[in-house]
């Protein structure tokens, strides 16, 4: 009886083993993401010989617009410069208000690139609470192509982007998506944004997709029109605020597969403050909270600093090792893995001379993670597209302006 009592674990020791297990799980996330990045990112650009280009599918690119920023002209023009047969793609711009300054910019680009088929749709259609879906509906109703590429206005597309997305198509593929990334700007807010998308977000994105767990961000999605019609069309998701999640989920449940393009979606926001970055992250956390509540509540324990503290304390309880040493080893491993992954998603060879420019944005992002999460879960209201919404736990939203 004395022996059995001595071998029983106390509640504190049980929690300590859970802390160690959490560290092992997150380390495996890092390793799988790093290995996956070596195989799924930046494949060669295919060169089409005579006659092969005729076999490429026609694609309608729809761009929802709202206002103008410093990089919008460069971002939109990059889609006019795609290296894809001119007769095989069109660009459909969508603006809610005729007085939107984006209207004049689009018309200038249309005059500058007359050989590219493009149209401007103004007004949208009010089919639900989601402003992005409402803005796109007028254009989507006119699409005749078998593929629809929904692409956010802040994305910059290298010339080979569409060719790479089409390469990911197979007969059973209903949706092709891109891992979001961000071009490095001069503002700290832009650099922290790049750090988030190049490390924490990419880690889970590549991990999920390597295990064939549907994980789709709606910034850039190439959708088979037959699959979209099969699940009720785009308007079927207008009542959801996170339309990308529910649309991808419906397509998978309709027995289509989703595929990850080897090129990331390059956000090019220009100027971005830390405050705007924090508000954007808070909006996403609130969306995740109403979609996957338990997972979102556990999210802080997947972040470097809090998990490092838990792991170091757990190791001290179980093996009586130094808290400071364990925490330092954890930080060094995490930072090194993130440094490598950032280079991988950026298509760059690892270069230690970039480490000084990596360190400050990385520390800022990691130190902001828990405060932003705390701020986010304290409320279920978000501001999006100039409107305010209350998020409901069924994924729907209420317009509360």
Describe it for me?
- The structure is a single chain.
- The protein is 49% helix and 14% strand.
- By secondary structure, the protein is α/β, with parallel strands linked by helices.
- The strands form 3 sheets. It has a 7-stranded mixed beta sheet, sandwiched between helices. It has a 3-stranded mixed beta sheet with strand order 5-10-7. Strands 11-12-13 form a 3-stranded antiparallel beta sheet, with helices on one face.
- The chain is globular and about 75 Å long.
- The termini are far apart.
- The model is unreliable at 1-5 (pLDDT under 50).
Q: How are the strands of the biggest sheet laid out side by side?
A: 3-2-1-4-8-6-9
**How many separate helices?**
15
Q: How far apart are the first and last residues' alpha carbons, in Å?
A: 67 Å
List unreliable stretches of 5+ residues. 1-5
Secondary-structure element order, N to C: HHEHEHEHEEHEEHHEHHEEHHHHHEEE
The percent range for strand residues is: 5-15%
